Amino acid sequence: MESLRIPILKIGEILIASIQVALHDASAVQFKDDLLQKIYDTKARGLIVDLTAVDVVDSFIGRLISDIAAMAGLMGTRVVITGLQPAVAITLVELGLELPQVLTALNLEKGLAMLQRQSGEPGDGTT
Amino acid sequence: MAQLRFAPKVAPIRSDLDIVIARTLARDTAKQLGFSAIDQARIATAVSELARNIFLYAGSGSVSVRELDRAGRKGIEIICEDEGPGIADISVVMQDGYSTSRGMGMGLPGARRLMDEFDIRSQEGVGTTITCRKWRH
Fold first, then answer.
1. C-alpha dist (Å) from residue B46 to A50, A89, A106, B17, B113
2. Bridge partners (DSSP) listed for residue A49
3. Contact assessment for residue B13 and residue B26, using Cβ atoms and an 8 Å cutoff
4. How far is B99 from chain A (nearest CA, A)?
5. Tens digits of per-residue pLDDT, B63-112?
6. Phi and psi of A61, rounded to 5°?
7. B48 neighbourhood in chain A, CB within 8 Å
């Protein structure tokens, strides 16, 4: 079965992937593999996974997000998850998946600012 | 039993794509029944966990979704059935963190927390039926 490919965009040293479709398991695993390869190829310092359009995060996707953060972290890339809908945040906690080791930000803009601050890029608007 | 507006629907589970179809069916039904956005997410997530269990442990099965009306109170009922290996000790699989697969062991206890009523019947070598319900507030 052909899986859906999520586009991964690059801005400076940061990669951005926004999930816009309901991921089935195979496409979610493909997404993880694509992200890690793209990090390696582009030497990105940060990665944002934007979940604004995602309305269900079950334990499989929750675990995958946690794995992506841990694996990218091993490669030296910080991961920020952005745009969790209130209903998704509530469901994740009730499900028992609080993802304590995963960095999050309210939206893409704040996530980008968080990574730019931490990478200390010149001209990123922070002191 | 009052008049029901929606016919029961069944989603067969044979692949990981069917997990998405089953949870979309449950969410759409919950939305039509007037459940809040947060309850729609709870119901869709519970169905995702239960449908994945069918796919992972039994290989195939089905998820049925129907409307409930108990003395005017609206609800949704999800029945997940498979003819898989069955569960030897239900109390063990309902513990947080118990997993025999790649999951985090949140599937069954997590789904139970997200729904209002949750019942498992299972017989080794025969299969498993999980019935769960959520009521509109």
1. 23, 14, 25, 16, 9
2. A17, A81
3. no
4. 12
5. 999 999 999 899 999 999 999 998 888 888 787 766 655 454 568 899 99
6. -70, -35
7. 56, 58, 60
**pLDDT the model gives residue B5:** 81
Complex-level ipTM: 0.86
Task: With cut-offs at 50, 70 and 90, classify the pLDDT of residue A121.
Answer: low
Q: How far is A21 from chain B (nearest CA, A)?
A: 11
- Closest partner CB to B44 (pick from A56, A59, A62): A56
Using an 8 Å CB-CB cutoff, list chain A residues near B96.
96
For an interface test with B, the pick among A56, A57, A94 (most B C-beta atoms closer than 10 Å) comes out as A56
Neighbours of A60 (CB within 10 A): 25
Of A23, A26, A87, the CB nearest to B41: A87
> Residue B136's closest CA among B43, B7, B33?
B33
For B35-53, what is each residue's pLDDT tens digit?
A: 999 999 999 999 999 999 9
Token pair for A19: 């999930």
Q: Do A24 and B109 touch (CB under 8 A)?
A: no
For chain B, the maximum distance between any two Cα atoms, rounded to a whole number of angstroms, is: 43
- How close is the nearest chain B Cα to the Cα of A36, in Å? 20
- What's the pTM value of the predicted model, to 2 decimals? 0.89
- Assigned token pair, B132: 């769960």
Q: Render pLDDT for A12-25 as a digit per residue (tens, 0 to 9).
A: 999 999 999 888 89
* Token digits of residue B47: 């169905």
Helix (H) or strand (E) holding B99: none
